[in-house]
Structure formats: structure tokens, C-alpha cells
Amino acid sequence: MNTIQAIRGMNDVLPGDVSAWQHVERHARTLLGTYGYEEIRPPMVERTELFRRSIGEVTDIVEKEMYTFDDRNGESLTLRPECTASVVRAAIEHGLLRTPGRRVWTMGPMFRYERPQKGRYRQFHQIDVELLGVAEPSAEAELILMTRRLWKALGVSGLALELNSLGSRDIQARYRTRLAEYFSAHAPALDEDSLRRLETNPLRILDSKNPSMQTLIEEAPRIVDEHDGDARAHFDRLLATLDEAGVEYRVNPRIVRGLDYYTGTVFEWTTGELGAQGAVCGGGRYDNLVAEIGGPASPAIGFAIGLERLVALLKAQSVELPAARPHAYLAAAGARASILAHAVAERLRDAVPELCLVVDAGHGSFKAKLRRADRSGARIALVLGEEEAGSGRIAVKDLRARGPQSVVSIDELADHVTRNVFAG
Ligand code: ATP
Ligand code: MG
Fold first, then answer.
1. Ligand 1 within 6 A of CB of 65
2. Whose CA is nearest to atom 5 of ligand 1?
3. 258 ligand 1 Cβ < 6 A
4. Model confidence pLDDT, tens digit, residues 124-153
């Protein structure tokens, strides 16, 4: 019979990799808590309408990347391709916006039907962070400083911050007209997608990944040249705040981001160490989104970290991770010893709750079990044979020191283990 395999672009995270994921998750959770962010867990499926309205009809995500289906009632639902829209929907629905300066985060899988390649998958994971109700550049600064601190806590280095400011909807409308003029003048050089977008959403032409379009895009008018006094003042205050806090950055007028809801500041953290998929974190301000999906007018800003890429960076930089090794490995062989093994183990767990203990009381010889004990990376092996079982004792073998084993009474085992495993 054929074996059944995972869906292309959707990965299993195997036990050997989980320690890196947990390292990231643990640090992110702690750090977000210290900045006053609370966890929120929206569902993974939403009405399709939510994403059409927020991300925008004429974007890669909505046009060709969503996993959309009709449920049994004929309602169109979509597996979330990102979760800012879900968090904002939840915040509106549950009145979270009544407290300005609401800080929330969430973590989990997102789904996009993209072409799978290194760093780009169809199910991928994000840590998503949103600060709702703060219009001042202080919000941008907080998010950026928090991400900088996270990279440091995780032990990754070399991530570069790039920033741009898209300005208000009015500025974007003026810019759209300028872009449309520019690209119309170069219509023969446009690919099919871009020609269509020229009519519907010229800003999205700037997202094109088509190499033959890149020179044209490089030379396109820049949104910063459309900025009014307010947009410029906001951005300047942000840059001054970052300068004061010693953050290095580069203003990159080409960053427009692939979603329509952004207004004002946008930013990305990128690395050159992961090949073409170098953006590890992206975000920005979306001051109109809350109202656009039916909530009270409210400024907001957020970012998302791509976990697969961050974990890949951790590996590329050989960041040392806490090892997932048991402290002790209990090897029991023989009928009576096998029965006794779990009782002994439970007594030990009662006495030493933080002990990580693997019990091997199934079939097999001592030799095989001790080999497995070695392979597990445990510090000590607890060896329980028929003879020990009969006399209420157990042998303790130090797997690193390779010295002689000691035999202790089961009553004294907890003390002995505490002394030997946790004392050094
Ligand atoms: P990219 O330009 O790489 O397509 P994006 O601008 O579409 O990224 P966002 O929607 O802003 O990305 O998502 C934030 C982060 O999520 C990205 O910086 C990236 O780290 C990660 N990410 C986005 N799409 C994928 C994907 N298909 N597979 C893995 N990670 C992804
Ligand atoms: Mg993308």
C-alpha cells in the first residue's frame, strides 16, 4: 500500500528540532510579558470576508494564496493567512479597544498557498504582536526595541532593521496616481500581473518578485516624496527615539509590504544568512484597519515574526540550546524488577519533582538497555535487576564518570540522586 505523506509545504517539526522552537517560544513569552503584552488566541478559521476586507482584494495573498472553502452551510471560510485581522476582529468583538494601549500577542500556524521553497512554506508559524490604540511614534519604538531585545535574548545576531513610512491614506492615494502615471509610461515593460495591477492597485506592482521588473521598480517614484508635514514629523520623531535608544536602522523607501492595511511606518528585520527568504520579522502601523472592519476608529500597529526563519537562523548561527536530556535512565530487566520499576520511579518523582527520568522496563537485555541509557544522554543509569529487586536495592551508575557503580537502598535513592544529579 502507498504510504501517506504530509502535504507539500507543510512540515513536521521533529523532536530534535523542538528544543529550538521551545527556546524561541519561551523567550518570546517571557519577554512579551515583561513589556505588558497579554496572550490572545483567536481561531484559525475566519469568514473569508475578513481577509478580503483587511488584506485587500488585489494582493497576492487574497488573489492566489488563501485556503478558502465552503463549509457545510455554504459559508465561505478561510484558514488564516496571517492573524492581525483576526486579532483586530476579536478586539472589536469583545470590547478590548475600550482600554487604549491594549497590548496583545498570539502565536500559531498561518496558511498560504505559496510556492514552497527554503524559508517559504504553506503552513508556517508566526508570533504576532499588536499594540492597539496608540497613535504616537512611541508605539513603533516600543515594538522595535522589544524585537531587538528578543534577538539578544535568543542569542541571534546580525539582523538588520529597515524602515519606511507609507503615510496616510491621502498620501497613498496621491502616490498611487504618481505610480500609475509612471508605470503607464512604461507599460510595454510590465508583466501580465503588473498590467492588471496598474488598473486595480498600482502600489502592489512594487511587490513584484519578477526579476525583469526590478530595474523599473527601483526607478519608480518614492512614497517619501509625497509625505506631508504630519507624516514627516511622525517618522522623524520615531527615528529620533530610535537614535536615542541606540538602535541601528536603514530607511528603505522600497519597503511597501504585501498587505493593503498598512498606513504610516512599516519595518522589517532581515538577515543575509538565510538566502532569498531573509525577512524574519515584518510589521507596521495600520491606523485605518479597525474602522475598516467595523470597529471604532483606533490607531494600531503590529508585527509578525516568522518562526521557521528565526529557528533556521538560530541553527545557522549554532546558537547553543538547552539540551533535552533526561537526568536519569532507569533500566529494569527481569519479571519482578520490571514490575517494581514503576513503583520505584514514582517514589523518586514524588521526592524529586524536577527530575527528568526515563523508565525502560520492557523487553530486552541489560546490555541493550544500558546502550539506550548511554544514547539518551542521561547523567546516571539506575539499574534494577532481579537480585536488586529481591533485596530492596538498586545500582546507580554514573554514565559520564565511568567509575564503579554504587548500590544503594531504594529508601535512600532519592537522597542519593539529589546529591549526584543536582549537586554538580
Ligand atoms: P515575504 O516577503 O518573505 O513573503 P511577507 O511580507 O509576505 O514575507 P508577512 O506577511 O509580513 O510576510 O509575515 C511576517 C513574517 O512571516 C515574514 O517576515 C516571514 O518571516 C514570515 N513568513 C511569511 N510568509 C511565510 C511563508 N510562506 N513561509 C514561512 N514564513 C513566512
Ligand atoms: Mg509574502
1. no
2. 258
3. yes
4. 999 999 999 999 999 999 999 999 999 999
> Residue 106 is which amino acid?
T
Q: Which residues, in sequence order, are bridge partners of residue 279?
A: 270
pLDDT at residue 423 above 70? no
CA-nearest residue, atom 20 of ligand 1: 306
Please tell me the distance from the alpha carbon of residue 180 to that of residue 203, in angstroms, as a whole number: 8
Q: Which atom of ligand 1 sits closest to the CA of residue 81?
A: 10
Q: How confident is the model at residue 421 (pLDDT cuts 50, 70, 90)?
A: confident
Cα-only R_g, the chain: 28
Total-model pTM: 0.91
Ligand 1 contacts CB of residue 109 (under 6 A) = no
382 φ, ψ (degrees, to nearest 5):
-105, 115
Q: Relative to the alpha carbon of 119, which ligand is closest?
A: 1
Q: Say which DSSP state 73 is in.
A: T
Query: Looking at this protein, which amino acid is placed at residue 80?
Result: R
Which atom of ligand 1 is the closest one to the Cα of 114? 27
353 residue type, one letter: P
- Give, in degrees to the nearest 5, the angle at Cα 267 between 265 and 271: 170
114 lines ligand 1 (CB under 6 A): yes
Instruction: Convert the pLDDT of each residue in 335-386 to its tens digit.
Output: 999 999 999 999 999 999 999 999 999 888 999 999 999 999 999 999 999 9
**What's the rounded Cα separation, in Å, for the pair 284 and 422?**
46
Rounded to whole angstroms, how far apart are CA atoms 391 and 142? Answer: 64
Distance CA 190, CA 177 (A): 17
CA distance 29 to 254: 32
Quick check: 370 and 331 in contact, CB under 8 A?
A: yes
Nearest CA to ligand 1 atom 1: 279
DSSP 8-class letter at 63? I
Tell me the CA–centroid distance for residue 402 and ligand 1, in Å.
Answer: 49
pLDDT in the model for residue 424: 53
Classify residue 423 as exposed, middle or buried by CB count within 10 Å of its CB (0-12, 13-18, 19+): exposed
